[in-house]
Amino acid sequence: MKNCKLFEAYKTNAVGVWYFTPCEGAFKIGKPCKGFGCIKYAEGSVYTGDIYYDGKNFNKLGYGQQDFSRSVIGCLISAIGEKKYKFVGQYDYRKTDWIYGNGAIYYTYAGGEPSHFVKGFFRGLDKVGEYKGEFDYSRLLDGYTAEMEFDYDENAVRLEELWCRILDAIDKTQKAKVLFLGDSYFEFADYQEFAGKNFFKNYFPENYVNCGIGGSKFSDWIQWIDKLKNITAPEKIVINLGFNDLNTGKTSEKTYRDFLELSKLLRGYFPETELYVLCIVHSPSCVKFLNAKDSYNAKIKEGAPKCGVVAAEWNSLIKESGLNCFHADGVHLNENGYGLFREFIDDLLKNGKI
């Protein structure tokens, strides 16, 4: 492998490209080429496989495998008592900077022993269709057999558990004053490994109900929102969505249209409720989507008030704080970030205007 380019990140086990070998010739900075290599990501996973270097960035394109053993993604899944181990299959950064195509997700028991695998067509870690073509069982990872295949939808079980928790919390309050409706930025606000001492539960009253569902998009909530239509109307709803939409390939225009549809549904169910929407945060590990986020944020700031929705952005607060506000995965907030987030929302609810 005389043409293999070894990077400094490999020597220190740091985030970044570890090594890259062009298919032809030697690696040259600024010269696009296809090759094979290894990349470590901020949340701890390590990808090994086909890579396209566009002259600036190293992109996953082709066949490869991503190891989640030392990633937050590989944490124990309580719903099934297992851990995600690896995804092996197709990647296409042009569709999403994650997983896209045929493949299989492998699971292990808590102790690391092989347990099951799920094959299919994936977008990110979501199975969005059946495996296209014939699956080659002879290429299963070592320790796995065809009998270990299952089609368990962990996301469906997790979603059911979350909805039971959400609806139970709303029922206990009799009338929720505020609903936090959104993605993992809200859900993880009640997880100590992210929020630390800044648990939302420690600061907001019990009638502020956290409806955060990690990984969710506007399109998901458009489908789910009827679960809430019969509750007593809350005084206020705060929406934090859009990040997952853009990071899975949706345009800023489509994401904004989905916001409009969701806000229309909410307004129909709760005509007197004050609605707030938060602009997308600029997380450090998703810089390639910065232009799309800026475009979406601009649309929200201009268009939301016309729909009677208060739009608010707190990127400047993060920057001005001078603090490291992000978890090791470079996507979610850490204890510092949740401290700012909590203060920002508290101020917004007290001073925001329709």
Give a short summary of the structure:
The protein has eleven helices and 15 strands. The chain has helices at 8-12, 154-173, 184-187, 192-195, 200-203, 218-224, 243-247, 252-269, 290-303, 315-321, 335-351; strands at residues 5-6, 16-22, 33-40, 46-53, 58-67, 76-77, 82-92, 100-109, 114-123, 126-129, 178-182, 208-212, 236-240, 274-278, 309-312.
Structure description:
The protein has 354 residues and is α+β, with helices and mostly antiparallel strands. The protein contains eleven helices and 15 strands. The chain has helices at 8-12, 154-173, 184-187, 192-195, 200-203, 218-224, 243-247, 252-269, 290-303, 315-321, 335-351, and strands at 5-6, 16-22, 33-40, 46-53, 58-67, 76-77, 82-92, 100-109, 114-123, 126-129, 178-182, 208-212, 236-240, 274-278, 309-312. The strands form two sheets. Strands 1, 2, 3, 4, 5, 6, 7, 8, 9 and 10 form a ten-stranded antiparallel sheet that branches. A hairpin with a 7-residue loop joins strand 7 (82-92) and strand 8. Helix 6 (218-224) runs parallel beside helix 8 (252-269). The longest helix is centred in the middle third of the chain and has 20 residues, at 154-173. It is globular, with a radius of gyration of 22 Å. It starts with a strand and ends with a helix. The relative contact order is 0.09. The mean pLDDT is 91.
